[in-house]
């Protein structure tokens, strides 16, 4: 059973790597961002509470996000393993996740930390566009759509998410830095913790991560 946590700042490529690795290992990719956006779009109680924090570039409170993630992990689809993308983000969340592993008598997860320079991150995120209809993502430079501002898949309109705008991004990165230092210290003592360079070409990075996991299991 492969349990993998992917850490890294917004725009580091956590989602890209999680999708590729999930396909390789045939386990679900659990994205905190996707789960929150789904709740916001459906107007759930959690979504309404989370919406204000996200629009301001702030992190959703620990207790809210931890509850929904742990409920997801208890689902049948996670019986063979899973990849966590965007969780945990704080020491509190990390400790609650470790408590969860102990409660269900499972070993701790592998932890991958993807690091990228701030200037690269800002360029990556502010150029990102999302389809309003199907949620597909593009980049105005790195992955442009075939038709201007239109999704290749469903022809829906492409928009810049509120949390991808420059002023919000700068705030998100500052908030992230305050949180990640302690989280890195928490996980760095584990033999299952490894740092990777997120500025590498995505396919090459996937191969390096997969090789590490293969040699470590």
Q: What integer value in Å does the Rg equal?
A: 17 Å
What name does CATH use for the topology? Rossmann fold
- The parts where pLDDT drops under 50 for at least 5 residues are none
- The name of the CATH architecture is 3-Layer(aba) Sandwich
- The proportion of strand residues reads 15-25%
Read across the widest sheet, the strand sequence of neighbours is: 2-3-1-4-8
The counted number of beta strands is 8
**CATH class division:** Alpha Beta
Spatial gap, N to C terminus: 9 Å
Number of helices: 8
Helical fraction: 40-55%
- Secondary structure class reads alpha/beta
| Fourth-tier CATH superfamily name | P-loop containing nucleotide triphosphate hydrolases
User: What summary fits the major beta sheet?
Assistant: 5 strands, parallel
**Tally of structural domains:** 1
**What would the principal axes of the Cα set say about the shape?**
globular
What is the H-and-E element order?
Answer: EHEHHHEHEHEEEHEH
What's the pLDDT, averaged over the residues? 90
